[in-house]
Amino acid sequence: MAEPELVDVDVDVVVVGLGVGGEEVAGRLAEAGLTVVGVERDLVGGECPYWGCIPSKMMIRAANALAEARRVDGLAGSAQVRADWAAVAKRIREEATDDWNDRAAVDRFTGKGGRFLRGSGRLDGPGRVRVGDQVFQARHGIVLGTGTRPSIAPIDGLADTPYWTNHQAIEAAELPASLLVLGGGAIGAELAQVFARFGVRVTVLEASGRILALEEPESSEVAAAALRADGVEIATDVRAERIDHDGDTFTVHAGDRSFSADQLLVVTGRRAHLDELGLDTVGIDAGQRYLPVDDRMHVTDGIWAVGDVTGEGAFTHIAMYQASIVVADVLDRVRRAEAGPDASGTASVVGGAMGAASAVGGAMGAAGPSGAAGTVPRADYRALPRVTFTDPEVGAVGLTERQARERGINVQVGFTELSSSTRGWIHKSEPGGFIKVIADADQGVLIGATSVGPAGGEVLSALVVAVHAAVPVSQLRHMIYAYPTFHRAIQSALDDLS
Ligand SMILES: Cc1cc2nc3c(=O)[nH]c(=O)nc-3n(C[C@H](O)[C@H](O)[C@H](O)COP(=O)(O)OP(=O)(O)OC[C@H]3O[C@@H](n4cnc5c(N)ncnc54)[C@H](O)[C@@H]3O)c2cc1C
Hints:
By secondary structure, the chain is α/β, with parallel strands linked by helices. It has 15 helices and 22 strands. It has helices at about 20-30, 45-50, 55-70, 85-95, 105-110, 165-170, 185-195, 215-230, 315-340, 350-365, 400-405, 420-425, 455-470, 475, 490-495, and strands spanning about 5-15, 35-40, 115-120, 120-125, 130, 135-145, 150, 180, 200-205, 235, 240-245, 250-255, 255-260, 265, 270, 300, 305, 385-390, 395-400, 410-415, 435-440, 445-455. The strands form 5 sheets. Strands 1, 2, 3, 4, 5, 6, 16 and 17 form an 8-stranded mixed β-sheet that branches. Strand 9 (about 200-205), helix 8 (about 215-230) and strand 10 form a beta-alpha-beta unit. Helix 1 packs parallel to helix 9 (about 315-340), helix 3 (about 55-70) runs antiparallel to helix 4 and helix 9 (about 315-340) crosses helix 10. The N and C termini lie far apart (about 80 Å). It binds flavin-adenine dinucleotide (FAD). The site of flavin-adenine dinucleotide has 38 residues, from helix 1, strand 2, helix 2, helix 3 and strand 4.
């Protein structure tokens, strides 16, 4: 007879995947007094601190320092600059990633009262999660924050080569002399510029007609001009068909064109791996690209998802935003469960939990149409900001002009070059950038905007507020914009709306 299975039932919530989203949910629920098991198979914190946002922005900070020093010529005299990648690699290893060790993050979670388990978690029927031979029965629910991994196209020959993903690119202690970057999206563009500024001969191979293909065409033009000014070659409409590696050199074959370099970086998108999560045991189709969620991150009753795995946008700020909603919703469910069927909205059974729930509700409630204080906020992605940290930065929010027209909106567009603003002219950097605003003429509000410039991501914040809060364009026109700032160009773009 088979041994009866040992199931740990002393658990309120199991969180599978402790990346940005899962770690936030697990930590806050544990702090609120729930019994939380957090399961992570790799490093607690996930992609962002170890192989994503933080180390890549350290690389960008260093590359931008080089570029700024090179601008001394003609502005302030002359400067000799000697790039040294070792300083960047050291900073990433020591300051950002602790040599790719998550001790501090694990301690942070357990310090909040969480139970940590290293391993791969998968659903094992309603309310159950299996990690190896351990099974947990969660009283209140399960949160999936399992993220994405690089999506590697099945290009002939690629799998047999020692190509880089973002992991090897971020971990690189030394740089190759030349590099092919397969994929001209945000990550490809950022890393291409960094490596070029450190002296690598970089070629970006992009399948579509332009890099940053999801952004406004004007953004692609400025970003491409900036990369070319740094010596990056950009080849568009390249559909890689075969990849060879002869031990030293990679060659990418595409039609009658071929491209060679010492290293190949593949950044062609990211993919959720739903087939590993045991979704079939709870009746969910694992054949989907992402895990669809409603506006409170429910996958199904008692299961929530958070972060990249939801497909709502692969950004740390989305994962954090969704995490706040999940925390509030789980605590609301706990409160209602513990108060019983006749509970009024004011029952306070889970003391600490309620405190945290109402703090979240208050913060989110104040931020938008998410409901009155005390109710669980609902996700609203209308004003989703995104920034590509090239130099100049490409910041955008809401709809592009094309997306707005495709939705049949009565669109007005306003545009201004940054160089025609006083600050842009003083700054004297080429290619300078621009502000583009997209308005819904019938509603009289902005529904999208792009801000490209030396501080494009920062200037974006004003435009995010405008889209998020649906501030009437008439009011935006009568705001006072400080002189001579980059953001003052917003006023010129608004004046151009037609
Ligand atoms: C190079 C690069 C630069 C980026 N720069 C930015 C930026 O500047 N700004 C920004 O907002 N975003 C940026 N991102 C995106 C950002 O990193 C992600 O949006 C964010 O990490 C998503 O968090 P997550 O929690 O959804 O998933 P992840 O961070 O991917 O974490 C998921 C975790 O789940 C674990 N896991 C998966 N399956 C299981 C399982 N079955 N059991 C146990 N554990 C499991 C994984 O090991 C992983 O640790 C960047 C990404 C990359 C690659």
